[in-house]
Amino acid sequence: MQTSVVGPSASMGLPASDQRFRELLESLPRVAVQGYDSQRRVIYWNEASERLYGFSEQEARGRCLEALLIPDEMADIVVDAHHAWVNHGTQIPASELELKHKSGAPVPVFSHHVMLGERSDNPLMFCIDIDLAGERKVQRELDYMTRFDPLTELPNRQTFETELENMLGECQRHGDTLMVLFLDIDHFTEINDTQGYEMGDLVIRSVASRLQGFQRSQDLLSRFGGDEFVMAMPRLDYESDALSVVERIREDFQRPFQIEGRELLLRLSIGVSLYPENGNDAPELVRNADVAKHRAKQAGRDGYQFFNQEVRDAMLHQHHLAGRLQTLLSEDGGGELFLHFQPQVAARSERIESVEALMRWHAPEGPIPPTDFIKVAERTNLIERLGDWVIRQACRQQAEWHAMGIKGYRIDINISGRQAINSDVFQRLEACVAEYGLTPRDIGIELTENVLIDADVKVRDSLRALHDRGYKIAIDDFGTGYSSMSYLKMLPVTALKIDRSFVIECAQEPKDRAIMEATVFLGHRLGLEVVAEGVENIQQLELLREMRCDLIQGYYFYKPMAAADIQRLLSGGNNPPHPGAHRPSSDPTSASNGCH
Ligand code: C2E
Ligand code: CA
Ligand code: CA
């Protein structure tokens, strides 16, 4: 072996002490040593190098370091560092590196470098590499052991809580809900006692894998220890809301388990807590789901409980409403969903400038306020379809008015937070506007401040594009959100709508008045239009006129009206109303009109 190797001593005629050193290097099984000439061609390659990198000594000899072991992205750096050492004496420090095996696989090493004959015309570089794969593996295993349950390979409690915390951050940003399920196996101790721990382990594993069947890609499942499992499910929608998930799990457990040739019937007790109703952080939600699970156990095994009954009732109601909404949407409103329109008039001339589209649900049992069903739609992922229906309905209405010769009245659509989470809604809006042969002047949008501020880059870019194409974009309910004034200059908006809560008492409340005045001033300085909503009486109107607010919306002039009524009004020449004259006696379905 040694005779076939042109080692450092052979090539350089090194003294006996170096010869012994070379023998030492040869004999170390885990220390890979390679020697390179001034062109970085292999002149020495010990057996450990062959084991570590896969090239035999014959294969390696004469080939360049960078062609053999160095990953592409590191090649230039290595060549430069070698030059710097040879030409300027700048040493390459020892370091942890990831080099390349013959097969292309990464090889983690700790690499030392020595230059022999540095000042001669044939400087030789020796690399002494220690294989770190073993250490890395141990590290990975340790890491795995601290994060996962070895029996089920599910995340353990700590991992679950950390990941749930991250998930809750996301939910908070996007206004999503989340459900935590605390599940434990009924009579598990009896199984352990009567059939032994090995059977117990098998049961735990089978239950884990059955629960995994309910896990969507975004869900978290963890073994908390013993016979306890906890699951977190964000963004539940109508198909998989809290109730139906729990029901499906229980139904599935009606089916016996086959374990070691035995048939076993296992039942779960389940506790449910919901974000945000039952807690804001991971420990609180888990604790409350646990409390609910204990109650489920007390009430008799094989049961489930929500952390509180009202939440459960609300869920049931929500589930019911969502189901009906879904049906109505598939029937283009089903004769129960409508848009009403409320004019916005110029403060001075009282001429109608535009109308806001407001949704109405005329359910057989009576009107359901938009604030209620929109919340349900948001929580059940129906908002996208509902929002698209509103967009289409508004465009259709506008096109119809155009055909009748009613022109110049923009329809403003409300876009809710959940709806604006991805930018597609704006693309669909533009497509719909084009489809009905309309222009950006015909349809406007209203968004709340928080939506604008929380929006991600894509959403903001889409809004900016809409803005640049001439769409009117208003900040709705202005003054009730984050109200960070400095944001205003960055947002692609054209108007501010002062929230009704400031208008209500402005005649009596100097503070509300001050805020309104400041908003009008600020809006105008930023080149924005200012609208006041919820104007109900002449005192409010006069104050707003004094402040030079541009547009007025409110019962003082008009309530939201059905399409036919507004059509009559707009085709009648749009004369300024005598206060009160055009107010239809009632808009029985408006939420803010006494149906709460
Ligand atoms: P909003 O966008 O702030 O709409 C203004 C609300 O104030 C409307 O309530 C309107 O009827 C009411 N209002 C207007 N003038 C007066 C007034 O002088 N006095 C009083 N007391 N109320 C007035 P509505 O129609 O019940 O809608 C409530 C909320 O539901 C809306 O608030 C909006 O956030 C949401 N909404 C309604 N339609 C839609 C829709 O198509 N899409 C979305 N995403 N949200 C909608
Ligand atoms: Ca609005
Ligand atoms: Ca508003």
UniProtKB/TrEMBL annotation:
- Report domain PAS positions: 17-77
The residue ranges of the EAL domain are: 318-574
Secretion signal: which residues? Answer: none
| Superkingdom of the organism of origin | Bacteria
Which stretches does the entry tag as region Disordered?
A: 569-596
User: PROSITE patterns from the xrefs?
Assistant: EAL, GGDEF, PAS
Q: Where is the composition biased (Polar residues)?
A: 586-596
Q: What's this protein's name? A: EAL domain-containing protein
- Show where the GGDEF domain sits: 176-309
